[in-house]
Amino acid sequence: MTPPTTAAPDRDGSREFAVGSLVHARGREWVVLPDSTPELLVLRPLGGTDDDIAGVLPALETVEHARFAPPSPSDLGDQAAAGLLRSALRIGFRSSAGPFRSLAGISVEPRPYQLVPLLMALRQETVRLLIADDVGIGKTVESGLIAAELLAQGDARGLVVLCSPALAEQWRAELRGKFGIDAELVLASTIGRLERGRLYGQSVFRPDRNYVVSTDFIKSPRHRDDFIKNCPDLVIVDEAHTCVADTGQGGARQQRQQRYTLLRALADDPNRHLLLVTATPHSGKEEPFRNLLGLLDERLETVSLDRQAGRDLLAQHFVQRRRADIRDDFREDANFPSDRKSREDDYTLHPDYRRLLEEVLSYARETVRCADGALQQRIRWWSALALLRALGSSPAAVRKTLHTRAGVQDADSVTEADAIGSRTVTDPADDEAAESADAVPGALLAPGAAASDATALDEEDRARLLAMAERAEALKGPAKDRKLKQLIDTVRELLDEGYNPIVFCRFISTAEYVKEHLDAALNKGGKGRKGASGKKAYAVEAVTGELSPDQRVARIAALTEEDEDGEAPPERRVLVATDCLSEGVNLQESFDAVVHYDLAWNPTRHEQREGRVDRFGQRRDVVKAVTLYGSDNAIDGIVLDVLLRKHARIRKATGISVPVPDSSENVMQAVLEGLILRGERPQYEQEGLFAVESPAGRQTAELHQAWQSAAEREKASRSRYAQNAIKRDEVAQEVAEVRASLGTGEEVRRFTRHALTALRGVPGTLPGEPDGFTMNSEALPAPLRDAFTTLLGPRHPRPVAFHDAPTAPRGEVALTRTDPVVASVARFVLDAALDDQMDQWQRPARRCGVVRTTAVAKRTTLLLVRYRFQLSLPGRDGVLRQQLAEDARLLAFRGAAANPDWLPEDEAVALLEARASQNTDRALAQERIEGILGSLESLMPTLEERGEQLAARLLDSHRRVRGAFRDVRGATGPARRGLRVDVQGRPDVLGVYHYLPVPVLDGTTTNGEAR
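^ thats the sequence. predicted structure below, dont judge the formating
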């Protein structure tokens, strides 16, 4: 469809075309873009997108000046025509004239608090930020906003995200789906293909491309130097706390040191933007925290943060908010939980299970005590602890552990044995590789390499272990595994309440065992069958570290999305997972409860698990978390009282989650040694602590005291380092400007429903969402039906669900201006309004209208005007970057066009709500519109003046966003010499709407004006 235009004569015969002007070429109309030269015009179709940009050579092709044609007086619409056309125009904008250039082209509507890091970034010459918001607040969105804006403004040429390989595909999908950034995956599994596709001597990396890269892959010497040399100038580091190390020992430190070396080399380039993202920047250790800060500014490694000068410096680079800090942002939206309800469900061991536990404890005590030498003792200790942990998990884990050679047996020293054992048996606070830590550690000490033969058990002990494995096999199933039975009851209760839970297990074998029995119990006896397809009503799947990241995504999709036959997923579903899904994976759209089947020996792991559902985008107001434990299992009691319950009390009292101190592992070792080696049973006091007279009790009390002190320090530091550089009112002002230009959520909701209903869609109610709706799309115009099929899938659910929320499940629609379906509706309505040759029923918006209404006392004319602006944006290199943007405004005047009385902008906007009180004769309406159209040229100076005023307001907004820090810290912000916003070309009058007062009996209107 080609919008109507009229040819415009060349001025003085000149063939030069100004940026922003309209031209006619190749049979259609175009807008001239800033990159144009006299020899080569870079053009975008009028009403088109950046994908439609083309280059035209005026010397070889005919290019003529053009003007946007005025409306036709006969193209009259009803009272809603003006509002529909304006909304369609604004929703369709993809190049905002405001200071946030990227917001018009992304498919996520950021909350005001998520704009704070963006405002901080735009006030730095080279962006160096540590974004440390709590789990679930939306750090990915915040960092993505900064990346999209820097790329849109030209301050960055390319982007690289460094992350875990398990999260690489998710990062790529987020960048593409939410921010329109296409990125190449660089992993161990993709590097071969990438290297084969390059020219000889050429790097895989280019500074002007976008990549998502495995941090552990790229840190190797083989690829590191090439990456550093050709790395793009914008780097986002996910889970940045895993890239710094202290002076401790062990393989984990070496891995972290290699990552830190890589980041240090990248940060040494003073022109490279660096965004560090983590929910746990401190982890209770000062040295790695300072190393992390030093990547942003070397002064932060040593500056005193107790002094105001140090805190001021930190505040320029550091933003950290708790959920409570931003809760007000969600008062009116059901997309962030207001509460997380937690409870403990206990069970008692079956007598046969308890006898096996006692035998395992006895075996562990005997084998460790009779060890020959310190190394053999530590190897046997960790082997026994692995067996006990497996027994607390499931019979399946016991059997697998007893048939798996102990990894700790390869140790050559006590230090190495403790490092391997800690990494594979416990959940240490510095273990960032949760996605690869769900395999059983093994407890079988068998003959192997010569160096480990001395640690092997004799035949009698091995036979004893294998006999235990057979006894564990007999405990499988809910009859004797009461933990499994309790889980089935807990999950049924959650499902009955309408929740879809995730069950977290420690080991792969446990997850598979739980999945099998849970599936059987929920769908027992055919009760879970539905329909002729025989599909289970309760869908249960397991995701573990045995699956690749891509396979995990596919497994979850199979559980939560429609199948290849177009059948919707079951309403009731359960996901059984190991901790491979405890970090960085978004599950909030499909799940809303967590069950801790196995207790983690690190409270942070529990927080990460629950953060998968308790986060931004969760539509349920209250999420649930249930912890299962054995009331007569001494090891469960130790973990609960030493770690988990204390963590919960601190979190409740302070409102923050504080990592357990380093000494926790030593305390756990002491308590477990007392239980295993000396048969000491914990003596619980009133608050669940151990008796302070015992050595374990004293160590536990000291741990809890140190933990409480760390929590108080962290709470105080969060107050001292709070983000005060950007005030809430300041953010609100910029958000209001953005919404005034691009439209509000309420406008989008009303437009979408009204437009689709006018186009013969049939609306319906959406259960549980009073502001959402469904729409039967079968009778819509063919182009819209095709768009729905393309965007939602050929077998999308029908009728289509439209959610009043920032996010929507796959195959459904979020009522936001950037949702692809909403955008397609706006584009169709706008194109149809500009094409008077289309069938009339397909044109709900019209360019003209005459309405008799009590809303006016004197004849009033409303004009819908589109402006184009050229933005001159100075980069940090001092180069001005020219960009073209659009804006739409409503202008209104009372009286005749020859002597207009112009109204304030708010009164002009209010006319959209005016309702017709009487019918208007069509001949009279056409006559009125013809008169106004004949006077448009006389009104043009005022329209152009309003454009200049709008440009001045936009310039002020740009300056505010890029303003100095002077008012907060006395520091100076980045220089922005040459920043300009200039009106380009004549404004386009898209719509003319005339409002007449209602006549009275004497032949005049209510104010005495002649009819």
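The longest helix spans residues 695-720.
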